[in-house]
Every structure is written in structure tokens, then in C-alpha cells.
Amino acid sequence: MADDVPTLSPEEIECLKDRHWYAFLCSSLITFFTGLLLVLSWRILSWLFCQKKVAEVATEAADAKKVEGGGGAPEEAEVGWVTEAKDWAGELISGQTTTGRILVSDEQPCILMSTSYL
Length: 118
Hints:
mainly alpha; 2 domains; 4 helices; 75% helix
């Protein structure tokens, strides 16, 4: 077993003593920030170019609604992010999705154990 260990030359030993951790750190940071820049630029460009299409569709839908309904109907209130988060949490724990089923099935043993001590 001791014969399997390779012997290193003096040049290899010297090379192993000189650590270049800063090169790894810099390359990792450059990769991360380049990816972040690409994602953010894609999001900004898609938002800029797609916003006009969404506005056109929304105005066409509003015009069609006015023609059909007489234009007297009030617009729907905008849903806040807290309400959306509550709706999402309710859907998640309802057991209607795969994730919800997993959460509900994991929760049942805890409920059974807590009620058995009553």
C-alpha cells in the first residue's frame, strides 16, 4: 500500500506551496456577477419591450368591456402581495398539489401524536 503513493518532484512540491486562492475567489465572483448582470439585463429588456404589448392588450380589453357592459362597471381592486402570499400559502397546504400533499402527509403524524396525549 505504501508503494502506491506517488513521489513528488521538488518543482511539484514548490508549486503546491504557492496557493492561489485569490484567483479562485476572483473567478467565482466574476462568474457570479456576470450571470447576475445577464439575468437582470434580460429582465429589464423584456420588461421594456413587453410592457407596451401588455398596455395595448389592457386598453383593448377595457375598450371591449366598455362596449359590452355599457362602461358603468367599476374596475376590480388590485390585489396586494400580502393577499397573494396568503392565497399561495392556503393553496400550498390544501393538499391539492403534490407539494401540499407532502406537507399535509408530513403534518398528520404530528397531529396524531399531539392528540394521543389528551
